[in-house]
Amino acid sequence: MNYLLQPKKYQHLISDAGSKAIMEKTIHFFESLGKTRLTDDFHKKVWYKNFVEFVGKEQIFAKLLTPKAYANGDPDCRWDTARNAEYSELLAFYGSGYWYCFQVSILGLGPIWMSPNETAKKKAAALLKKGGIFAFGLSERSKGADIYSTETALTPASDGTWTANGEKYYIGNGNEAQMVSTFGKVKDGTDDYVFFVTDYLNKAYELKKNVISHQQYVSNFALHDYPITEDDILSRGSHAWDCALNTVNIGKFNIGPCSIGMAEHSFYEAITHASNRMLYGRRVTDMPHVRRNFMEAWLRLMGMKLYQRRATDYFRNAAKDDRRYMLYNPTSKMKVTLQAEEVINLLWDVIAAKGFEKDTYFFTATSEVRGPSKLEGTVHVNVQLIRKFMKNYFFNPKAYDPMAPDFSDKDDLFIFDQGPTGGLGKVAFHDYLPTFKKFADLPNINCFMKQIGHFKEMLEKAGPDKAQDMDSSFSLPLGEMFSVVVYGQLILEQCELSKIDQDIVNQMFDFMIRDFSRFALQIYGMPNTKKEQQDYCTKIMLIAAQGDAAQYDRVWETYVAALDGEYAMNE
Ligand SMILES: Cc1cc2nc3c(=O)[nH]c(=O)nc-3n(C[C@H](O)[C@H](O)[C@H](O)COP(=O)(O)OP(=O)(O)OC[C@H]3O[C@@H](n4cnc5c(N)ncnc54)[C@H](O)[C@@H]3O)c2cc1C
User: Fold this and answer.
1) pLDDT at residue 377, as a whole number
2) Ligand 1: distance of its center to the CA of 378 in Å?
3) Residue range 118-131: mean pLDDT, rounded
């Protein structure tokens, strides 16, 4: 059984014929292109015109990103978060640049589908049909995460229209998007936030440069008295603000699949190389430390996939009274992306020189894998966000109906109507304990539960005081510990749904226990940690994963070593 994406034996997540065709055509596109051209284009930083033409010709973005209501009857069109995640993973498997083109189109369409402006929505649907790509113009060079300080300005004219002025930085697809959802403020005395649409073809839109050195285009553009009419206004005031954050909620969920795809392709190359490399008369993979690196990389990759899959169900079924995704999405964003960095590190430590070779996918991944954790909210931003849920998660559970896996062909329309972004303290979660208890017979889950128990008691009896709470160097590792619990819970929920071999489940929690201890050690060592907090950290750190050599060997033989030669991209 191979749980990793294997394009040549592709296991479709979404089974309708239209969705299958999208994945198969995309695999065919990349496998026909071949690895030599793929890596060459990456190194020469060639804008992927061929890919944009391909998705346009096959109507792929149109099918994936047009809600049914604007689809003119095309039965394959819908906004399906599960399908978009599947597609993201597949694109990144071949190159994160291709994924980025899709990702920023998703972001650009967010404020459009969230808008009451029907003219703009119909225009977006028509452009999608014509093969257009989209852009999200939020960031400005000096402002970073501080979007309160946005300087792009919309000034009213006497005839009821506006002129836009300002400069945007880091805007993907800004070189070819005919609808750039641009964020600014209305300079009519209100300073209201506003989203409006700009077009790179307009002469008042100055495309200044690509700010990064890459085949993807991350633009710096300026607007010089750019004319804006009512038809271009997407949202205003608090709605525009909510659209910005709610679009990022959508986009950040799509970043985990990118990291997964990169790690998977790299894994195939690494295990195939190492398994066939003979040193001192034996295979490199016969060395115990090498085996350990592969095991850990594979188990971490499994965790990433299981978490992301389960979190998708919660996002697809979110509602005004079920906003659990507000915790699960940032957890995906920070954990899955960072885990991918660990996977590549573990693999690269083994394949060493091979990972530098220019005609490997692996090399592209080494230079790309650290990107996803930093975009759409750095790890710090996301950890600070999830900390807001810690109290309710541990101390005020709420009963919900069980969340069924969702592969239906529905439009995920709630994500365009998420409502005000506040009220996070009111979001409630189902009790995490029953999930863990179902696996309590497995020694490592049992150990992990003990760690959670100490952590919860620490929060209850020796929680951070006000000063510690305000000190982000203290609160961040605390948030990281919390994220490990959430991560573990959804991984286990998915293990149950997918009936994952108990050997794998138990082995996965070996690294989870070590991760928990690592953050406990960080808190232990902070200069402002109190004695009673250190005592709890010690209890957590002293819990060691339970070794099981026979089980370890079974997982190695059955699932990991078996991937030697399993996949190689066409040359
Ligand atoms: C390749 C690439 C593509 C991009 N694509 C787009 C795009 O298409 N559209 C777009 O609008 N933007 C885009 N961006 C911008 C991207 O979203 C920003 O980089 C991101 O918002 C973070 O801003 P910053 O990197 O300037 O970090 P800063 O905002 O300068 O943050 C620096 C540090 O401050 C701390 N910090 C800041 N705020 C907080 C907080 N609230 N809580 C805790 N810590 C905090 C963190 O430690 C953080 O690491 C892109 C950027 C890159 C590099």
Assistant:
1) 87
2) 6
3) 98
pLDDT tier at 174, thresholds 50, 70, 90 = very high
**Cβ-contact 483, 331 below 8 angstroms:** yes
Instruction: Classify burial at 230, counting beta carbons within 10 Å of its beta carbon; exposed 0-12, middle 13-18, buried 19 or more.
Output: exposed
User: Are 300 and 373 found together in one domain?
Assistant: yes
Q: What pairs with residue 106 in β-bridges?
A: none
Report the pLDDT value the prediction gives residue 319, as an integer from 0 to 100: 97
Of 216, 239, 262, the residue that ends a domain is 239
pLDDT level of residue 148 (50, 70, 90 thresholds): very high
Q: Residue 534 above 90 pLDDT? A: yes
pLDDT at 376: 85
**Which of these three, 133, 163, 185, is where a domain ends?**
133
Residue 395 has pLDDT above 90, yes or no: yes
453 CB neighbour count, 10 Å cutoff? 14
Q: Tell me which residue range forms the domain holding 467.
A: 254-397+422-561
Q: 138: Cβ below 6 Å to ligand 1?
A: yes
Percent of the chain with pLDDT over 90: 99
From first CA to last CA, the distance across the chain in angstroms is: 26
Question: Could you tell me if residue 246 is inside a domain?
Answer: no
- DSSP-assigned beta bridge partners for residue 220: 209
Contact call for residues 235 and 360 (beta carbons, < 8 A): no
Q: For 306-319, give the DSSP string.
A: HHHHHHHHHHHT-B
- Structure token digits, residue 519: 């953050």
Of 304, 270, 313, 294, whose CA–CA distance to 400 is shortest? 313
Instruction: Tell me, letter by letter, the H, E, C secondary structure of 144-176.
Output: CCCHHHCCCEEEECCCCCEEEEEEEEEEECCCC
145 Cα: distance to centroid of ligand 1 (angstroms): 5
Return the residue whose CA atom lies nearest to atom 48 of ligand 1.
378
CA atoms within 13 A on the CB side of 569: 28
